[in-house]
Design goal:
Elements lengths: L4 E5 L3 H13 L3 E5 L2 H10 L4 E5 L7 H10 L8 E6 L3 H9 L4 E5 L3 H22 L2 E4 L2 E4 L4 E4 L2 E3 L3 H12 L5 E2 H8 L8 H15 L6 E4 L3 E4 L1
Parallel strand pairs: 1-2, 1-3, 3-4, 4-5
Antiparallel strand pairs: 6-7, 7-8, 8-9, 10-12, 11-12
Helix pairs in contact: 2-3, 6-7, 6-8
The structure holds calcium ion.
Length: 227
């Protein structure tokens, strides 16, 4: 799709310009970086739809960049195509193991690059559509994939534990969950959850939901539900 943002992380000026020129003529928006750290910085400022990542970079190498991006929730779903020299077989394997979607060996023809890039973008769009799980309850929208909650259209900040609890309640509106069931649901969030702390978390969630907070009901002696 034209207008998709591609970040090109490549230290060799000529290759960077060649890639950028060819992709721009196909209608893509190009962001350029000439080192690993600059690349990571640019991803954080402006999340691209795909990253072309050279492995041999002057500061931190492409594998390290890949590892860092795949470790963070906010960036782990951005597809990465690695650019490698033919002799770097072990790098290709490491890159794929780290979660890169594909690789292209240098030298490559612009047409091959564009075909590969399109294939990866298409696969990614399909996967996103299949996984898109937005729960809507009253004026609360919970996007499990983006880890985002909108209240009356406004993005609100929940902690990981609050997000897990709210998501759990919202999977079955009307259903009453005991404190223990809620604890089970949020285990693994690195939060020492006790029955009492569930109450504290719920208070926090209600507050952050503002006027929508009233839909989280306390069912005396039993637990909580979303009306
Ligand atoms: Ca290089």
């Amino acid at each position: 799709m034209p207008g998709e943002k591609i970040l090109v992380i490549e230290d060799e000026h000529d290759i960077r310009e060649l890639i950028s020129y060819n992709l721009e003529s196909e209608g893509y928006d190009i962001i350029k970086a000439s080192s690993g750290n600059e690349g990571i910085e640019k991803v954080q400022k402006n999340v691209p739809d795909l990253i072309l990542l050279d492995i041999m970079l002057p500061d931190i190498d492409g594998l390290e960049v890949c590892r860092k991006l795949k470790r963070e929730d906010a960036t782990k779903d951005i597809p990465i195509i690695m650019l490698t020299a033919k002799s770097e077989d072990s790098d290709i394997i490491s890159g794929l193991e780290l979660g890169a979607e594909d690789y292209i060996t240098k030298p490559f023809s612009p047409r091959v690059l564009i075909a590969r890039l399109r294939a990866v973008l298409r696969r990614n769009t399909d996967a996103n559509e299949a996984e898109s799980t937005v729960l809507t309850v009253h004026e609360i929208q919970i996007d499990a994939k983006k880890h985002e909650v909108l209240v009356e259209g406004e993005n609100i900040n929940l902690s990981a534990t609050e997000f897990a609890i709210l998501s759990h309640l919202a999977t079955n509106p009307g259903w009453v969950f005991s404190r223990n069931q809620i604890i089970d649901a949020v285990r693994g969030q690195n939060y020492p959850v006790t029955e009492r702390s569930v109450d504290v978390q719920i208070l926090g969630i209600r507050k952050k939901l503002g006027s929508q907070g009233r839909y989280i009901e306390t069912v005396r002696g039993v637990g909580y539900r979303i009306k």
